[in-house]
Amino acid sequence: MKTFVTVLGLASLVALAACDSAKENKVENAYENQADALDNQADNMEAMADNLTGNAESAAENAADALENKADATREAGDKAEDAVEKQQ
């Protein structure tokens, strides 16, 4: 039964994904690309923090955390923008 529910859920997701319009995909991709760039910046900042000590390390780690939070917010904004496009159709 559990396998059946899992397969049914996956099939539903595939069906929903097929309903996305080109405009929705374009909006989603734009926000996702921006969020990925922010995540990359955060990764670079964390790598730099590994080479620092004391307050400088803490500052770099805090900056990386801020970038990751911004990436999450960007993804959330992208989801809302995608939903708005979907409602317009």
Describe this entry's structure for a reader.
Helix 2 runs antiparallel to helix 3. With 89 residues, the chain is an all-alpha fold. The protein has one domain. It is 91% helix and 0% strand. It comes from Sphingobium cupriresistens LL01. This is Lipoprotein.
List the helices and strands and how they pair.
Layout: H1 2-18, H2 22-50, H3 54-88
Question: What would you say about this model in short?
Answer:
Keywords: Signal. The protein has helices at residues 2-18, 22-50, 54-88.
The counted number of beta strands is 0
Largest sheet: none
Count the helices. How many?
A: 3
* Share of helix, binned: over 70%
Strand content is under 5%
Report the structural category.
mainly alpha
Rg from Cα? 19 Å
What's the mean pLDDT score? 81
Domain count, please report it: 1
Secondary-structure element sequence? Answer: HHH
* Global outline: elongated
What attributes does this structure have?
89 residues, mainly alpha, Lipoprotein, signal, 3 helices, 91% helix, disordered N terminus
